[in-house]
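Re: that chain you flagged

S.,

Sorry for the slow reply, it's been a week of failed gels. I finally had a moment to sit down with the sequence you sent. For the record, here it is as I used it:
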Amino acid sequence: MHPCCKTTTVRNRLLYYTKRRYSNDKPFTIEEKYILPPRQNLHQEPPRVSVDISALNPKTYLGKEQKIEGKEEETPLIADLKNRIKGKNPLPVAEFMKEALTHPTYGYYTSGGYSNAVPVTGDEKVFGVKGDFTTSPEISQLFGEMIGIWCLQTWISIGCPAQFQIVEMGPGRGTLMNDILRSTIGAKTQNPLFQQFRASLKQVTMVEISPTLQRIQKNLLQKSIDGDAFKTYGNTLIEWVSHFDQIPEQLPCIMIFHELFDALPVYQFEYTSRGWCEVMVDIDEEESQKEHFKFVLSPSFTPNVTYLKTIGIDLLQKQEIGTRKEVSPASLLLMQQILHRISTQSGAALLIDYGHYQSSKFTLQGIAKHQFVHPLCQPGKVDLSIFVDFGSLEYTTKEFSKQHPNTAYPVLSHGVQKQGTFLMEMGIDVRLANLLRKQTDEKAMEALVDGYTRLIDDKEMGESYKMLAVSSPLIQEMQGTKLCGFSTAISTTDKNETKI
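Prediction finished late last night. Pasting the structure tokens below so you have them in one place:
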């Protein structure tokens, strides 16, 4: 077959694949009418994700059997944690997790991600095919473009504030923000809504605790330098801060939290014949185990057990022996900060992560080189994450609204949506079809469809990843409706199985 014929055949097949869902009366979306500028590295095949979070089994952290040859190397962080345990008994899981990820000198993120990944450049030590894991923005430009259009349409829904800022907390390499800006203020269109959006966006605020990742983000987003601040796409200021409470308060916010909540520390509890006991981290002296630490149960009730009340658990009510619960007070506290910010300054927030609709069992996992490892091995060199409890976050939102009825901007919850459904509602298939029409390279076309499939397919990331949106009140024309992408979202507090 002639190469040109082969390319045409593949193109037609892919176009049919993406357009088969359409009917003639389906309305066009903004991103279909106005072609967004493609990434410069469009021809580069996106990295593969080799970790399947749906297959996690706490009993098989190490996967296939591995030969144990003594203890793993004792790093300075391991020595420090051992000294703490010797000084004040076993550590709560949350404390171990916090130190492993954000220790000022040896933390997984704060030290630059010096993981078990093969030696590569600094920006690849955590993210990408050569790092420990790959996130949705690294898989396909389509993801960030849909989030960018969500920001624009949400800005319209909350009344087109004359001045506002976009905030991303935990922005990784900055790929998501780069795509958001490219698809909105960088879009080549004279549409008045895009022009007004550009003029109103006064600042982008990146919340990043890691100096190494801050440098990587600046290298990607920097277009011109103005003192210690950076500008990109015209005169939009980009600034970096380390903590949420450092976000400028004078501007309404549209906030993005992509795979942040899964890294916030959790406490773990198990119901025993003695009542609720806390799971702790102790020193493991057994030479047959390569890890320096092990999980143990507290001998009795600990003060931290009261955290169970935050997810609606009655501590006096008897439970089935062996019942396990996982609680993240840090997540609930951050959620309250987000809600307070929206209620006083107006705006919206989009939370994107893998997780469950309701409080689940133990989900703490370690990931290195795209493989699951024991969560207690090599602290500081292994990524730790949990499945986010979206039910407790939405519950916190609704309780906040009840407790603060007279705020300047009452906060609305738009429910929890599967990632695949959200992206389809945003028009990801329309955008894909547009890119394919303009593409002639067969490998690039296949890469686009491959990334699209992985983002929306329920067997890949479409169902395990979920989204929660909250906002200030919507404009009059949208009263009684939800933000774009959430028309079929689930309210977790209405589900019978959600005990919160």
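What I noticed first: Residues 49-430+460-494 form a domain with the Rossmann fold fold (CATH 3.40.50.12710).

Talk soon,
D.
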